[in-house]
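Q: Given only this backbone (259 positions), what sequence would you predict?
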């Protein structure tokens, strides 16, 4: 990424932008960088100035300990300033939870769209997230990055044979490299439950989207987000999964952000 801005705590943030029009900032989820959401910029660039970035602790961006969710909100504040002082936000998965935090904090955000924020609305979800937090904290403290990645992949529901296959794949070193940022995403998700008080404080329109072919609990989580926000709307994309096709998602986002 060629462009840089600096967050409030001095952390360098790498970003790119394309297109013309109102600013839209794309926020990636766990185990990903700005490159993961970059394909969505192409179909949106016709009507918007689209910004994507490497969240702190990954890609070409820096990191400054100690971590706090507020630091990532400040990162978005710096990016919004670089984009002209006001922007809409789109966040995928835990990046969606971060976008909601940013909107609730009072940043100059026009609208927020989120795709499948993985809040644990299923039975036993809170207990599962607490166990994940304990295991993740221990693995990262002991430098066992591979084990941390495995814990995350199990949390997503990936089958054990696929996890072991991933360990043997060429992409595994890259996954281990970004593993420390799993603690960031875990902090953003809080206790894993839908943060109703936080959502109730958001004063801008929020669109919560889920894939029609995704697990039912992800659709339910998106619906609960939309219901908890004063100006919330839910939308399901037929045939889409957690990895949505940018060309299917972009028209929905463009319609929402243009309002």
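A: Predicted residues:
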């Amino acid at each position: 990424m060629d462009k840089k801005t600096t967050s409030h705590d001095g952390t360098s943030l790498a970003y790119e932008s394309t297109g013309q029009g109102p600013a839209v900032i794309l926020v990636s989820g766990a185990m990903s960088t700005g490159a993961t959401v970059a394909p969505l910029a192409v179909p949106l660039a016709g009507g918007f100035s689209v910004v994507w970035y490497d969240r702190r602790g990954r890609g070409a961006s820096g990191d400054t300990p100690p971590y706090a969710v507020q630091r990532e909100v400040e990162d978005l504040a710096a990016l919004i300033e670089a984009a002209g002082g006001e922007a809409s936000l789109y966040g995928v998965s835990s990046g969606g939870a971060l976008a909601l935090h940013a909107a609730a904090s009072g940043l100059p955000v026009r609208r927020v769209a989120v795709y499948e924020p993985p809040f644990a609305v299923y039975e036993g979800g809170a207990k599962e997230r607490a166990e994940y937090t304990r295991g993740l904290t221990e693995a990262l403290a002991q430098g066992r990055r591979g084990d941390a990645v495995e814990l995350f992949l199990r949390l997503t529901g990936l089958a054990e044979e696929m996890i072991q296959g991933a360990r043997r794949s060429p992409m595994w070193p890259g996954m281990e490299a970004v593993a420390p940022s799993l603690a960031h995403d875990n902090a953003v998700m809080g206790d894993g439950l839908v943060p109703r008080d936080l959502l109730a404080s958001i004063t801008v329109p929020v669109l919560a989207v889920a894939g029609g072919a995704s697990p039912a609990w992800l659709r339910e989580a998106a619906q609960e987000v939309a219901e908890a926000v004063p100006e919330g709307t839910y939308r399901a994309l037929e045939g889409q999964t957690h990895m949505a096709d940018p060309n299917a998602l972009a028209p929905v986002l463009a319609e929402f952000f243009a309002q």
